[in-house]
Write a structure and sequence with these properties.
301 residues, alpha/beta, Spore Coat Polysaccharide Biosynthesis Protein SpsA, Chain A, 2 domains, nine-stranded mixed sheet, two-stranded antiparallel ribbon, 39% helix, 23% strand
Length: 301
């Protein structure tokens, strides 16, 4: 495969376990990788130095930056704006994600010949949990704008459920898959979703009084727009606590999540009765004691 005029931006915090497989999944097609790190305390920075040396042998490179974390959107937009990206195309990918080999080939084949009216590429993401592809339960495929002509997209400024949005032009969807496959353990997963639940409550408190079904910054994918409508106009209109139970029934039984075996059962149960129920409990506590959720910084797990 040849090299594409592409810069890949990755935000990290203690991603030593995931970062190598993410970068190696590109199979040498990206001209540059930009790491925006929020002061990792593991071996992330040392690994980046090693990866940069390896990438330079094939004509690519990795540049390591550090910036204090406020939220994902701010960190991503800082990375796109402050790291001297000069390539025609830019890409966002998370450290725990990776390209399937056929997606790397598709990017390599199609991106260099893209017509000038196309500014964005939507990718299909599949989620793995405890090593198993969560294929059912309505979780596949997730359609996400991840590749775009440099300067033609930005991350919408939201606390939760933030998406890359296209600022101008059209987007097309590629055929092959991006994988979300975090190798950290279940303790980390539950700590992360406890942190997410605080952010979810804060986002709800800040946006419930306005119409937040559409991004104010640019164009969402149709799937992202519909999910936001269902969440804000449907799910949050249901009674607290009951809606978490209905969420589980919908994902696990109606959308056939049980077909993904024990991992599917654990995943959908925790999504409903750990994460969604916890969000409702924190909303109830805030309302009962007239509290506002505090500003959330980075995950400490």
């Amino acid at each position: 495969m040849t090299m594409v005029d592409l810069t890949v931006v990755i935000i990290t915090k203690n991603e030593e376990m995931n970062l190598r497989k993410c970068i190696e999944s590109f199979h040498g097609i990206a001209k540059r990788f930009v790491i925006v790190d929020s002061y990792s305390t593991d071996g992330t920075e040392n690994l980046c130095n090693v990866l940069d040396s390896e990438l330079q042998t094939i004509g690519s490179k990795l540049d390591f930056y550090q910036n204090e974390f406020v939220d994902h959107a701010t960190q991503l937009n800082w990375g796109f704006a402050n790291t001297d990206i000069t390539t025609e195309w830019s890409m966002r990918i998370d450290a725990d994600e990776e390209l399937m080999e056929d997606l790397a080939t598709e990017i390599n084949t199609k991106l260099t010949d893209m017509t000038s009216d196309i500014n964005g590429i939507v990718l299909r993401r599949r989620v793995y949990f405890m090593g198993r592809w969560i294929k059912h339960g309505g979780r596949y495929p997730e359609l996400l704008l991840r590749i775009f002509r440099t300067g033609k997209a930005a991350c919408e400024q939201k606390i939760m459920d933030e998406h890359m949005v296209l600022l101008e032009g059209k987007s097309i969807e590629f055929k092959h898959d991006l994988i979300d496959n975090n190798t950290k353990d279940l303790e980390w997963w539950t700590n992360k979703h406890n942190w997410y639940s605080n952010r979810e409550v804060l986002d709800y408190q800040r946006t419930i009084a306005i119409d937040s079904t559409e991004s104010q910054n640019g164009k969402l994918t149709n799937q992202a727009r519909m999910k936001r409508v269902v969440k804000n106009k449907g799910y949050y209109g249901l009674p607290k606590f009951i809606r978490a139970h209905l969420y589980f029934i919908y994902r696990y039984y109606i959308k056939l999540g049980f077909l993904d075996g024990p991992e599917g059962r654990i995943f959908h149960f925790l999504q409903a009765y750990w994460y969604r129920f916890l969000v409702d409990a924190k909303m109830y506590e805030c309302e009962k004691f007239d509290r506002k959720m505090g500003v959330q910084r980075e995950l400490k797990a």
